[in-house]
Design brief:
The chain is an alpha/beta fold. The chain is about 35% helix and about 25% strand. It has helices at about 35-45, 60-70, 85-95, 115-120, 165-180, 185-195, 215-225; strands spanning about 5-10, 30, 30-35, 50-55, 75-80, 100-105, 125-130, 135-140, 145-150, 155-165, 200-205. The strands form three sheets. It has a seven-stranded mixed β-sheet with strand order 5-4-1-6-10-7-11, with helices on both faces. Strands 2-3 form a two-stranded antiparallel sheet. β8 (about 135-140) and β9 (about 145-150) form a beta hairpin. α3 (about 85-95) packs across α5 and α5 packs across α6. It is globular, with a radius of gyration of 18 Å. It starts with a strand and ends with a helix.
Length: about 230
């Protein structure tokens, strides 16, 4: 029997670095708010049984309207945001009914069915997309401003979303981090460090970019037209 899968969609940030006049997930790309691309994908995937998302303060109703329009086949819950990304993930995961969760963020509209299928096909209960960084990097001494050493590109990977987790393991990791007073910016490392559970690294996708800067809007718009 296949496990039920909850789709957790982080959509509570305000995206200040994008310099858009409102939270960037509501920026229209090819006529659709960026948030909608993730909603439509989750709505169409037969393994996903529910969608749980959050919204910035003052944008709850707008988020609800988009969920009803672009994810009508799935039970969509809209929850409050945490003070941090980590707290927001914990809130979403705590409300999930599925044994497995797919964690994603609205700022990555290039999500595809193939990404979800690759995660669900992994025998490991915890897995994520990791893309090799295609350029040279180095370590810099922050006190002196001097180049310290080379960082081989074969050792460097960009952590992408979506990610898949066993819900109980993810929640245990978040509780352990809270108890220890530790703050993480993403969940694959959080789960590994706080529970010791394995997280399978699956090859990421070059087009799966996160919209952060103003120029990213135009780039994603062109990619989604192809």
């Amino acid at each position: 029997m296949q496990k039920q899968v909850s789709f957790l969609l982080l959509s509570g940030g305000i995206g200040s670095r994008s310099r858009h006049y409102e939270p960037k997930q509501f920026y229209k790309i090819n006529g659709l708010e960026m948030l909608c691309y993730s909603l439509m994908l989750a709505n169409a995937h037969e393994r996903i049984t529910e969608i749980i998302t959050n919204a910035p303060a003052g944008f709850e109703e707008r988020t609800r309207v988009l969920c009803e329009k672009y994810a009508p086949a799935k039970s969509a819950k809209i929850l409050q945001c945490g003070d941090t990304r980590q707290e927001s993930v914990r809130i979403l995961a705590s409300a999930a009914q599925g044994d497995a969760v797919i964690l994603h963020e609205a700022a990555r509209p290039m999500i595809s069915r193939a990404m979800i299928d690759e995660l669900l096909a992994s025998k490991e209960p915890n897995a994520g997309l990791f893309s090799a960084v295609p350029f040279s990097m180095c370590s810099v001494d922050l006190d002196t401003g001097m180049v310290a050493r080379d960082v081989p590109r074969k050792d460097v990977f960009n952590i992408q979303l979506p990610q898949k987790f066993d819900r109980s393991t993810l929640l245990s990791a978040h509780q352990a981090a809270a108890d220890a007073g530790r703050e993480f910016t993403e969940d694959a490392i959080l789960v590994k460090e706080m529970t010791g559970a394995n997280v399978r690294a699956i090859a990421g996708h070059g087009q799966n970019i996160k919209v952060t800067s103003p120029e990213d809007f135009g780039l994603v718009e062109k990619l989604l037209q192809n």
